[in-house]
Amino acid sequence: MTYECKIIEIKDQPVLTVRTTAAVEELPQFFGEAYGSIMRYLAELGEQPAGMPFAAYYNMDMQALDVEAGFPVATVLKEKGNIKAGKIRGGKFAVTTHVGSYDSVGPAYETLADFAKQQGFEVGEIAYEYYLNDPSEDPTTQPETEIRFPLK
Could you read off the pLDDT of 16-57 as tens digits, one per residue? Predict the structure, then answer.
């Protein structure tokens, strides 16, 4: 697959997230529970997400991923239980979109990291994945995942 890569600049983005350490095969259950609890909490507050759900990966240990799942929100909101309020720090990001199964995203990561280096940047320690669609709503749809690397 060919990946179109670009550099974007974003402002600080308030978020609500749930963070855990999990093996890669446990992620579907974790994401379902995390996104569901955040959506229920947003409904309690009378709020809506300000964008698509995302995951932040703090390491790439497939047996013990340090991962955070969440939604961008319009303004800083209060925390509740394991739902934490935070922000994605603004700045420059290298971005590409992967179309296809979530477990085949590796080449997109490699291409994006190479692109960032060619542009004279180092990638940060966190990798973000934004889930642009929900194939469970339409099984004929391929998953679309936007990958973002913060740049140094």
Answer: 999 999 999 999 999 999 999 999 999 999 999 999 999 999
* Eight-class DSSP state of 33: H
- The secondary structure element, H or E, covering residue 60 is none
DSSP 109-148: HHHHHHHHHHTT--B-S-EEEEE---TTT-TTSPPEEEEE
pTM of the entire structure? 0.94
Q: How many CB atoms lie within 10 A of CB 148?
A: 22
In b/e form, how buried is each residue of 108-133, taking b as 16+ CB within 10 angstroms?
Answer: bbebbbebbeeeebebbebbbbbbee
Phi/psi for 138 (5° steps) reads -145, 100
Rounded distance between C-alpha atoms, residue 71 and residue 57, angstroms: 14
Which domains does the chain possess? 6-150 (3.20.80.10)
The size of the chain, in residues, is 152
Structure tokens at 47: 């709020």
